Amino acid sequence: MIKRDQTTVEKYKKALVAMAMPVLFFSSLAYADIGDAMVLCKHNKTVRTLRVETGSDSKCKAIYTKQGVDQTIGSSGDVNTCSEVIAGVRKTLEEAKWNCRDVKEARSSTVISVE
User: Fold this and answer.
1) 42 has pLDDT over 70
2) Confidence (pTM)
């Protein structure tokens, strides 16, 4: 009986390690120090986000998120141009009584249940 319990414990340990490794790996990728490149705007309980994403080719995209759906609202080879697009949309939202703030960092995490 003890041998079987030890085997079960070993299986659970292996399963836990197998699940923890991707979480640890991807959580470091999910952390992004994005400086002033992301803006969070709220009005009542409605939220909008604005961000600049830069690709490996140094081209950027200005992205507006509404109801969880990303929309590219501008793109350029110059990050300053994408930032100007974001600043313009932010100004428009603030003029419409939205409260916007810069987000200095973004983190994402995933919860995994073990049965």
Assistant:
1) yes
2) 0.59
Query: Which pLDDT tens digit goes with each residue over 27-36?
Result: 333 333 343 4
DSSP 31-83: -EEEEEEEEEEEETTEEEEEEEEE-TTS-EEEEEEETTEEEEEEEES-HHHHH
For the chain, domain boundaries: 1-31, 33-104
Which structure tokens are listed for 66?
A: 């509404």
Whether 52 contacts 37, CB under 8 Å: yes
Distance of CA 91 to the CA centre of its chain: 23
Cα Rg of the chain (Å, integer): 21
Amino acid at 20: A
